[in-house]
Amino acid sequence: MDITVHRALCGPWNGPLPPPHSPSTVSLPLSLANSARADCAFYRSGCSVGTLSAMETAGLDSDGHQFNSADEMWTEYTGDDSKKDQWYRDGVSYWEGVEASVNGVLGGYGHVNDADVKDSGVFIRSLFSELFVDGGRNRPLVALDCGSGVGRITKNLLLKYFNEVDLLEPVKHFLDAARESLSDANVAAGSDTHKASNFFCVPLQEFTPETGRYDVIWVQWCIGHLTDNDFVSFFNRAKAGLKPGGFFVMKENIAKSGFVLDKDDRSITRSDLYFRDLFRQCGLHLYKTKDQRGFPKELFAVKMYALTPDVPKVISKTRSKRKANRPAIIH
């Protein structure tokens, strides 16, 4: 018996390859589909993940071909330098044929933009209040938007919270559209202190950030194009780009178990356990997660992860709350 699992929502991508371009269906054996494990909306923990089971590492591609392990799949598609280069070229080539618009980078699902931005805003506000002194209000904040596409996330989310945002995107006509969208003439009033600063047309797997520049590195709907080795290499390089106390936010589609490979654009949707094992390999601390809500049911689940290079010191707000709520004392 099989069940139908729909491909994940695609989004802007920063690196090697773009996420799935449109919803379609693939058959997934019921035994694989039922092995998912649920998380609460918010979850804090250290990133201690044991060895993945054979069930968890098995996966399939968009034609229904099954792989016994992720290693088997990666060997087939990226087993030597020539294959790996072709993997990344194919992804870029696909997105070079996609319209440079919000609807284009979201695979025809432009209407999910509002729900996406809303839940991301809730998540980032909670992180600011817990990890930044005074919620980050008393210092200039800088973010990197990985897989920025046409600047959708920068314009609708990040510029509301950061003084500067750098955009990283390998597809030139997407980045050109982002530059135009974020120009002074098209950004809301008051944006003189909240601006898009740098536009890097570089694949994610080749990018090395400036040391200590960023408070937050935002990675959304793009990491599925990186091989496991390049995933680990990217985060290890990117750690140096964070300021002290800075963190990563990764927002991605989640497979119920193992992985699902989209052959058209060379992207992989990983399970939660698969991601957690990669975080462990990166030496990252998984501080908090949040599940995206309000997306169409035919799409993969989407989860946000807050990741830190070290166990963070959480800001205590108890004293300030008491002070704010205490009646004034008249002498």
From TrEMBL:
> Is Methyltransferase tagged as a keyword?
yes
Catalytic activity as recorded in UniProt: N-terminal L-alanyl-L-prolyl-L-lysyl-[protein] + 3 S-adenosyl-L-methionine = N-terminal N,N,N-trimethyl-L-alanyl-L-prolyl-L-lysyl-[protein] + 3 S-adenosyl-L-homocysteine + 3 H(+); N-terminal L-prolyl-L-prolyl-L-lysyl-[protein] + 2 S-adenosyl-L-methionine = N-terminal N,N-dimethyl-L-prolyl-L-prolyl-L-lysyl-[protein] + 2 S-adenosyl-L-homocysteine + 2 H(+); N-terminal L-seryl-L-prolyl-L-lysyl-[protein] + 3 S-adenosyl-L-methionine = N-terminal N,N,N-trimethyl-L-seryl-L-prolyl-L-lysyl-[protein] + 3 S-adenosyl-L-homocysteine + 3 H(+)
How would you classify this enzyme at the top EC level?
Answer: transferase
Query: What biological process terms from GO does the record include?
Result: methylation
Q: What keywords were assigned to this record?
A: Methyltransferase, S-adenosyl-L-methionine, Transferase
Q: Which GO terms describe its molecular function?
A: N-terminal protein N-methyltransferase activity
Role description: Alpha-N-methyltransferase that methylates the N-terminus of target proteins containing the N-terminal motif [Ala/Pro/Ser]-Pro-Lys when the initiator Met is cleaved. Specifically catalyzes mono-, di- or tri-methylation of exposed alpha-amino group of Ala or Ser residue in the [Ala/Ser]-Pro-Lys motif and mono- or di-methylation of Pro in the Pro-Pro-Lys motif.
Family per similarity comment: Belongs to the methyltransferase superfamily. NTM1 family.
Put simply, this protein is called Alpha N-terminal protein methyltransferase 1
